[in-house]
């Protein structure tokens, strides 16, 4: 009998971020129905670290507890009808399809909200529902690199260092979970559902609230020191590689395709699922040796044309100026009474009916003491006595 008992969640997500968010709701008592293809969700067939388990691999096991599985073909009319029927009694619908897929399947917010106006519809994406990067692959490593996070660790003479965890997936999961709960609370007050949009780029960028504000507000450059400050479960190539003018990130590329593009004959006969583990160090070294011969822009253009998952490695200056960041409105600006004009990461969750706003900046010590104590019913004389006695402080 968890705190979310009585809440029904239709989890139509795959991989990590969406399932992790839905699992959190299940852990709190929600009835989470995992809606997956009859062949099983993608993560059932992809074993991180090669940990395949008996019938359920560790990757899937770790992200899908406290759920019931409904295996259904949503491309069949009957299957889709089943899902739409369930929408009538659902509280939360969660999906992380690529932009445009939900509409093609007929399970977009506009369609489902007509069936159930009380529905909380959580839509998760890599970079946003629209904008210049909407169709780029939303993969953890690529988003770590683009967010500027990698440039905050490691030594100055070494390549940017990725986190040893699926950091962006986890943060995005918690962001979606937070958004779903907030929307449920709004519905409790008003009776109305709404669309909740979360994307990985905004989630990983805004979680660096302090660091990015030091850069944007404090004016301190992002500088790594001479000595390092600070995944062994992903097949090669997976990491950050130097180019002739910078660095790029590459994630889980087809070895044959990559070998052809970088003119590395060693890759021609390698198998992605076996040799990429057995020869992981050699593969990395080969890619590293080849990529220094061309610029980041040249490699990114070539790789994207051939469906190689890749992305730039940003510092904070690049993050702030990035067109997708600007399109998303990832940063907010406002005037603070003592700090002047402030530019800082904003809100990773976009509520369609209850948007977030900056109503006040960070308060001074005791700035609102009198106001708050007045709301408790205390008269001004009593409040001033508390201030004089040092029990409270007023700004």
TrEMBL record:
GO molecular function, one term: transferase activity
Keywords: Transferase
Keyword rRNA-binding (UniProt): no
SUPFAM superfamilies: CoA-transferase family III (CaiB/BaiF)
The EC number(s) this enzyme carries: 2.8.3.-
Protein's name in the database: CoA transferase
Source organism of the structure: Brevundimonas olei
Lineage, uppermost ranks: Bacteria, Pseudomonadati, Pseudomonadota, Alphaproteobacteria, Caulobacterales
């Amino acid at each position: 009998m968890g705190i979310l008992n009585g809440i029904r969640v239709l989890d139509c997500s795959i991989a990590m971020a969406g399932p992790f968010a839905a699992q959190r709701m299940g852990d709190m008592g929600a009835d989470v129905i995992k809606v997956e293809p009859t062949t099983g969700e993608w993560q059932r067939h992809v074993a991180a670290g090669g940990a395949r388990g008996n019938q359920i691999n560790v990757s899937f096991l770790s992200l899908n507890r406290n759920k019931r599985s409904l295996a259904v073909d949503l491309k069949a009319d009957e299957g889709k009808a089943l899902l739409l029927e369930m929408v009538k009694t659902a509280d939360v619908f969660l999906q992380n399809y690529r932009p445009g897929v939900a509409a093609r399947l007929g399970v977009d917010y506009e369609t489902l909200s007509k069936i159930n106006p009380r529905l909380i519809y959580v839509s998760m994406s890599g970079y946003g529902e629209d904008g210049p990067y909407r169709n780029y692959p939303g993969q953890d490593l690529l988003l770590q690199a683009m967010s500027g996070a990698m440039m905050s660790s490691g030594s100055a003479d070494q390549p940017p260092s990725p986190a040893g965890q699926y950091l962006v997936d986890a943060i995005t999961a918690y962001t979606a979970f937070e958004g779903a709960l907030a929307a449920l609370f709004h519905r409790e007050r008003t009776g109305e559902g709404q669309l909740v949009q979360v994307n990985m780029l905004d989630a990983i960028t805004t979680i660096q609230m302090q660091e990015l504000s030091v850069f944007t507000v404090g004016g301190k450059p992002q500088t790594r020191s001479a000595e390092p400050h600070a995944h062994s479960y992903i097949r090669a190539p997976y990491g950050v590689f130097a180019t002739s003018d910078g660095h790029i990130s590459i994630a889980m590329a087809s070895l044959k395709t990559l070998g052809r593009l970088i003119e590395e004959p060693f890759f021609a006969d390698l198998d992605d699922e076996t040799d990429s583990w057995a020869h992981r160090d050699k593969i990395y070294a080969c890619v590293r040796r080849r990529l220094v011969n061309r610029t980041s822009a040249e490699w990114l253009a070539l790789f994207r044309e051939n469906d190689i998952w890749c992305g730039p490695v940003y510092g904070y200056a690049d993050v702030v100026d990035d067109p997708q960041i600007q399109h998303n409105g990832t940063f907010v600006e406002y005037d603070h009474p003592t700090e002047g004009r402030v530019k800082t990461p904003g809100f990773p969750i976009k509520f369609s009916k209850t948007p977030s706003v900056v109503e006040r900046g960070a308060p001074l010590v005791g700035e609102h003491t009198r106001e708050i104590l007045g709301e408790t019913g205390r008269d001004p004389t009593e409040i001033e006595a508390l201030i004089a006695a040092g029990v409270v402080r007023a700004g």
